[in-house]
């Protein structure tokens, strides 16, 4: 998979710089306790509540249900982590539209914080089919398959957008702009 057309957002660049500054280069480095400590957060397992985060300017506690399996627990963690990093206010006291916007932003943040794009290119060589790639990422990043599929769709869209927005102009025309890789049902150069 050629990610040369992938354009990171400012939030991704900020997050990936922090990850790398803290020694997070591979999927196995994405330990949620370590990541929580980077952001001065504490993870608390809860018997009686849904996953949520409680935070202010000086304190952050991410509550995760103890009944969750590991993959779902990690999925919830990366979603909840967004709120203290990007949002203000108590959602119980915010207008519904603002809460909806925050949840959309948290869902996007969850995708690139849980599966950083700089970690996946090396993994593509280990499989022969797109389905195997999805399952490999699910296992490597310890995330539910549905979240991996969303992230890969986001990556494909960003690569396409990068190509369409003129990223292709620096390429020579002596080779084809696109080749089709049947293994992954994915366009690349």
Give a topology summary.
Elements (H helix, E strand, L loop, with lengths): L9 H12 L10 H7 L3 E5 L5 E4 L4 E6 L4 H17 L9 H19 L15 H12 L3 H20 L14 E3 L4 E3 L1
Helix pairs in contact: 3-4, 5-6
Features:
three-stranded mixed sheet, mainly alpha, globular, disordered C terminus, 189 residues
β-strand percent reads: 5-15%
DSSP, total strands:
5
How much helical structure, as a percent, in the residues? 40-55%
Q: Give the structural class.
A: mainly alpha
Quote the average pLDDT: 84
In angstroms, what is the radius of gyration?
18 Å
Distance between the termini: 8 Å
Structural commentary:
This protein has about 190 residues and is mostly helical. About 45% of the residues lie in helices and about 10% in strands. It has 6 helices and 5 strands, in the order H-H-E-E-E-H-H-H-H-E-E. The chain has helices at about 10-20, 30-40, 70-85, 95-115, 130-140, 145-165; strands at about 40-45, 50-55, 60-65, 180, 185-189. It has a 3-stranded mixed β-sheet with strand order 1-3-2, covered by helices on one side. Strand 4 (about 180) and strand 5 form a beta hairpin. The longest helix has 20 residues, at about 145-165. The chain is globular and about 45 Å long. About 25% of the residues are buried. Mean pLDDT is about 85; it is low at about 170-189.
In short:
With 189 residues, the protein is mainly α. It is built from six helices and five strands, in the order H-H-E-E-E-H-H-H-H-E-E.
